Amino acid sequence: MKSKIFISLLFAAGAFGMTSCDDFLETESPSVTDRESVFSDEESAQSALLNAYETLRQNQSLHSVGYFWTPVWGSDIEDAQDTYSDGSPGCQEKTFYPGGTENYNINSGEGTEVFGNCYKTIAICNSLIESFESLSNFSEIMTGEPNSLSNIYGQAVALRATMYYELIKWYGDVPHALKAGESAKGLTSRYAIYDYHLEKLMEVEPHMFRPGENGTRADVMNRSYVQGLIARIALYDGGYSTRRTDLGADFYVDGSGKVLTFEDWSVEKNHAIYGRRSDWKTVFEKAIPYLRSFMSDHGSIVLYTVDPRGKGANGQEYDCPYQYTFEQMHADDGFTVADEAVYEIPFQIKGGAQRPAYIGRPSSGGNGQAPCIACGQDRIQAHFYYGWFDPNDQRRDVSCSVTGSTGQGTELMQSFNRSAWGAGCGPGTNKWDWNRYAAPDTRAYGNSSMNVSYMRISDVYLMLAELLAATGNDAEAKTFLATVHNRAFRGGLDPNFEKYISDAGSVYDAVIKERALEFSGEGVRRFDLIRTGKLPKACVDDRAVMTKILDDVRDYGYHTFDNGNQIPAYIWTKMVDARAEYGYRLTTQCPLGKENDPVLYPSWRGQHNDWGSLYPAFAGVTETNVAIKGLFKYIEPGSEEAKALEAEGYKQTNWACDMETYRDSYATKLLAGYSDADYAAKNPPIHFLPYIYSVVLNSGISNGYGFRQE
Q1: Greater confidence, 404 or 36?
Q2: Is 569 helix (H, G, I), strand (E, B) or coil?
Q3: pTM of the model
Q4: Which residue among 114, 127, 140, 221 is least packed, with the fewest CB closer than 10 Å?
Q5: Of the residues 501, 517, 540, the one at which a domain ends
Q6: Is 650 within a domain?
């Protein structure tokens, strides 16, 4: 029986793979006609669920705006690799449509596949959920302690809710299909969708296993993830967003059908307005008990406050619990799931993951080199790298790197030269790096088997801190904020924690800043700005601070930040044989007191310790690491200090001075679609993607926010 059913499910998945975005809207979802026989055993139900997971795993393209490669360009801390261009669809989307939504080609850009692919997953989940709910013993399955079948049902509910969360995040109001075979047509209030799925998640949460229970791992949706998902959806449900005003006064209702009122920040423009539902506090308060439950028991998930690795075989000092979770993502053994993962989308078996090739530490090498290509599409803005982090915050070097790889077995200093593909555009994301695999398959950049980290335990801590602070409980919020913040410092304590909060302005603002520090490079910041109402001011402030930096570098040769760091026009670099000097090439946390070592600081860079064993052509390469002087403190060209460095073999190297050539990209056109004039006028930011023409044509819905219909 199982074999027959499984084959039919695979056929259904294959049929979906052959349909286009418009086709699926008119096609019945893959459903199971004989429900009793399908769920006659646990294995057949599990097979159906795995089919749904597979559609989730496949929901990516080379430049997808899905959860695999998010447009991290569009925030006030993250930047692009590409030079800004008014004609680029990607630049339009990520900078809030500076050319105007009415002029945007809705069939271009990076949002052309995600909408339809999410509904493919939803269709399978609908069939699975409806099949369960039609069972004669469904009530018995969903009574009492979790069991294998209630856990499968809960996963299907969680997977469907996750897809609707993603759809609303990217598109706003969407069709709400809940029945097997139901086409995705017509628009439903996003708040009604949110409320519905919050209730369903609350229903299934007690009947699911946590990681570590009954063989459950964090590479499937689980009870702990559902608790976090309840909070994640609630923060968006009660958060700020731009909504349409052309759908009728009674369109925006809650889950019970009650017409909502709103607290609006903006005026109306483009038939849109930016605000949040008036009962947001009630929505937030409903989620808090589920995160408290998470804190009391989250199964085998661990938040490391001490690095478990000790010292490396050649004397490397790790001593950075924050980095350990990213190190685990590089295990490449077909089994490891990061201990801090609440949920990861697994890629170990089939590969095809786009980290680190697209959102990892840059490499200008080609396929089959050491390492192969890593284009570093997401970059880190200079003011964030230099100014936001306390110099003692260990997350900075784990998250951001000023060096990449050449593909010839050597480290490469990045630059701010925007035309230097793979080697320019400033600091890159450092959390994912070909060099950190023991034996990476770099024949082609799509061969990574790295899981997609979808929710980590630190996210749950900070969501609870945010919900508590937003609802008036600062004292308790501080305890959860402190846990995440302090573990980023040696000894697990930031002696300036209270100052950190006061400088931020409030406990709530400190939590939102902490999320930027904790999740930089992961595509979180853009959406945090939107849902917290901070986006309009952030757009204005971002351009102003980067303009000031460029002005100072041009006029004085450097810019000084409040934390004491200086970004200079030039730095001094040379290549060195790190293996001969230290015994290793891939560096770890810089040992205490070695901050002046030009190879070990900044931390977490260098090269794979033995590229030569994997690629013999590079076995003879010895000078593999970049030594850097003057990265955080200005050295005047021609000074005695500069001359002494040059006598030691260092070369004066362009650094921040190169930003001037690309002032539009680095400063004046940042988030250009939301201008200073828009902020002064309190216009609503347009932060959604449009529906493409085939969706509009086949779904009975229309584009809003000024977008065209075809």
Answers
A1: 404
A2: coil
A3: 0.94
A4: 140
A5: 540
A6: no
